[in-house]
Amino acid sequence: MAAVNVQTTPTASRALAARDQGLRPGEQLLLGMAGLGVFFGLWSLLAVLGWVPARFLPAPWSVAQTFVALLQEPFAGHVLPTHVASSIGRFLLGWALAVAVGVPLGLLMGWFRWLDEIVSPLFDALRFIPPIAWVPFAVLWFGTGPLGPTLVIFAGAFPPCVINAYRGARLADRRLVEAALTLGARPRHILLEVLLPACLPSLVAGLRISAGLGWQSLVGAELIIVSSGVGYLIVQAQSNLATAVVLSGMIAIGLVGFVLDTILRGVERRVVRGWGRT
Amino acid sequence: MSGIVYQGVSREFRRGNRSIRVLDDFNLEVADREFVALVGPSGCGKTTLLRLAAGLDFPTGGRVLVGGRPVSGPGPDRAVVFQQFALFPWKTARENIAFGLRCRGVPAAERERRVAHYLKLMGLEGAEDAYPHQLSGGMQQRVAIARSYILDPDVLLMDEPFGALDAQTRILMQEELIKLSRVNPRTVLFITHSADEAVYLADRVVVLSQPPARIKAIIDVKSVRQREGWEGQPIEAVMDTEAFNHCRTQIWRLLREQLEQPAVPVDGQSSSRAEEAAPLSKEVDYA
């Protein structure tokens, strides 16, 4: 058995060392392209060989065709860009609301123990309810108005805002506050120059996670009676058995999510670097 | 006049519904411009004593006076140097050092002049625009000391300031501290675990007991230093002398006695409980 150990350990350490070493940018790009290539290759193969009928899984090229067509020809009342735009608008409203309420609440919970004790039990139960479960109430309370989808997106984006702001405030180094006090800092210095910067990395990470979850909740939100949006497009395409349109909608959701995440990741990186914690 | 006076000071910490007495009727006077080192077992209340003088903590009984006035909070007459430096990670060395002056509304030109002076004095030229994480431990502590010194405090409260440094850096920093305190002597309360450091730096070394802290002995190093002519000598020259060894051994013996003594239960609690209740681990609202 000893021989086995002797063999496995160096292999594991080699793998670890290779992981630490990292990749050159060229290699990184190559591997990423390879992953995509294998995915689309398999998909094309399935379509060409006819193992899966086109009405269950349309071929990549017909999806691409549909996608391009949707840019000009309206489906479910609008062209794809209009659907995307109205989805983004709804998302921004819900997300902004979640940030505006969630971040201050999280920070206050982190700083005031009593508020933490009051809110935590309720919050810890509520946050496990999937955003889509709020759909019936969103319809009941807000009907077909714009607030219905907003509520569902809010339900998805709110918990990470609270949790990360809370964590940031809790983890803010107490000694830094004390150091600032002994250096003659007034409350405004403490707030702006110590507590806020201390929370910021965690806060920005929270914004990114909450944007992702909010955007994901969107389809659920758009199941509610609305007459535009990518979720609405997908639901309409589903009832028409237009699978290529469904996939085009999914791709649009994925692309927008990817762009959103890339932007926020950039902001996050900048904040973390500026804070000297790379 | 800026001595520190502890008059019958008590401090109890609440842990759940138990209370732990870290200080009980503690008395000590640190004279104006005197350098006093506190040594004692871990968790004996040294840090609490320092925090009381800093105005970061408050006694449950008795009084703490600095410069004849009861301490009511942190003040410009006192500066604290923490063991873990407590530099602002998002500020450069220069910004860290300037922070206190900015809080006090010192004009920019005057601020820059004074920061430049301290950067030079502490050997931080070339590191002005580095962030703390880019600096070595020794450099970080220089920044922390400069950040305190620049405010020209009457009282310097140092909580194991060199405890996190490697042995070589530590010795250099000790010599620098001595040099600085020659340029401009101040009242210093200095916590350390090192008997060597205490003897090399302090005028008096106060040896404390297990909690609740009592003064077990006070060693007058100043008279020995003057008699032996240690003033201005590098640390290796001083450490080699018989008088230094005698002082150090004496402190070690007293410390060992404290360590070997079974901890006195306080309010039914063992001393390890008291350590647990060290104020830094306490949760407090930043209200």
Write a concise keyword list for the protein shown above.
A: 278 residues, MetI-like fold, 80% helix, globular, B: 287 residues, alpha/beta, 4-stranded antiparallel β-sheet, disordered C terminus
Q: What features would you describe in this structure?
A:
The complex is a heterodimer of chains A (278) and B (287). Helices cover 80% and strands 0% of the residues of chain A. By secondary structure, chain A is mostly helical. Chain A folds into two domains: 25-52; 60-277, MetI-like (MetI-like fold), CATH 1.10.3720. The longest helix of chain A has 32 residues, at 80-111. The mean pLDDT of chain A is 86. In chain B, the strands form two sheets. A six-stranded mixed sheet of chain B has the order 6-7-8-3-9-10, sandwiched between helices. A four-stranded antiparallel sheet of chain B has the order 2-1-4-5. Chain B is globular, with a radius of gyration of 19 Å. Chain A binds chain B through residues 111-113, 173-186, 189-190, 193-195, 197, 274-277, and chain B through 54-56, 73-74, 76, 78-80, 82, 84, 86-90, 99-100, 102-104, 131-134, 147-148, 151, 280, 283-287.
